[in-house]
Amino acid sequence: MSVLDSWEQWKDFLGDRLNQAKDQGMNQQAISDIAYQIGNYLANQVDPKNEQQRVLADLWSVASPEEQHAIANVMVKLVQNNGTH
Q: What Pfam families does this protein's entry cite (predicted)?
C-alpha cells in the first residue's frame, strides 16, 4: 500500500516530513516553497488515490500560482500536528 492510498497515512507522512524539516532548522519560507513544489508535482504527475486528493487536485488545477501557494500553506498547517514525531 502506498502512502498516497490513504488520506490519514498521507497526512501522517507529511507531518513526519514537516517535523524532520523543522528539527533540521528549515525555516517556514523554505517549508512553504517545498510544499508548493510538492503540490505542483503531485498535481501534474500523480493520479489522486482518494476523494480528498481529488478535491485538492481539482482546486489546484483552477488556482492561480498565488492561490496554489495558499493551498500548499494550508496543507502545511493541516499536517503540522500529524505524524509520529
A: DUF3243
